[in-house]
Amino acid sequence: MSYAAAASVVGLPSLLNLKSASLSSNHNNSNSGGGEEDPNQLSKLTVPGYKWRLVIAYDGTRFSGWQYQPSIPTIQGIMEKALTKVTKLERKDLQVVGASRTDAGVHAWGQVAQFVTPFNYDSLENVHAALNGLLPYDIRVREISPAVPEFHARFSVRSKIYHYKIYNDIIMDPFQHRYAYHSTYKLNTAAMREAAKYYIGKHNFSAFVNASRNDGSSDPVKHIFRFDVIEMGRDLQLEVEGSGFLYRQVRNMVALLLQVGREAIPPDIVPKILASCDRKELAKYSFSGPPHGLCLVAVNYIEEHLRLPPGFPETSLGRHHTIRKCKVPCFGHI
Prior knowledge:
The chain has helices at residues 3-10, 15-28, 39-45, 75-87, 91-94, 125-134, 189-197, 249-261, 269-276, 279-283; strands spanning 50-58, 97-98, 107-117, 139-147, 157-168, 181-183, 201-204, 221-232, 235-242, 294-301.
């Protein structure tokens, strides 16, 4: 269905108004300091078109993080390039927003993003296949679904789950070097678990935020729901779920736990650093953990905002290829 036809049916704005609103929204979303948009202002700029939700996985090794930057490769930039080819829309009209601005080298299994179009689709399977056909091998769209107008990739979030993987042995597994931090120290996991408990609950995490980038968050108080230390042979997986995270907060929390695991500092140092609300206090004991061990595993949303709107195609989880007729001779007895 053409945009003009769709507009007459569902009362969409003119394409001129759509582009004007998109330009305003794009301007607000291009904060080079990594600032968060104002939810109230953003709701005023929401285009009454069709909104789509993507679940994206990527190996962050080759990329300079999620957020779009014009001169260097980022996940958002590459996603937008693929979307412009599939939708035939300009970047500013897509209004792509990601749930989390992962840093350079950080991976994701469950990054979530949204984009808008002035038209509907009959099916999402072809769109899904086309996107993955255009994306490089280390970025994949796992799922694409329609979204209700109230859904917002960032402001509808209830919690985010990150995993940090550590390979704890003398010699590094070469098959894990891109996805796990190598610790040659024999880590005391019991001490790490004790220390991790101090993170749980609502705390001011000012001591765990890097000041080198202004993330625009006015509230340093975050709610950590769980922080698990899980042993899997030589692998140690740190799993943290929280209402949100400040810039490099997870990597800073992990780095302090590593120092506790090395028995360089006691577990009860954590509440003292939290109480200080001073990044310089944390710097006395540890630096940020390297990015390659970190992975955004899942983003959980307000349930009501995940309902599927009527009149839209079904969610696409991808499709298997099938062979309808064998074109080569079948093998006999082997």
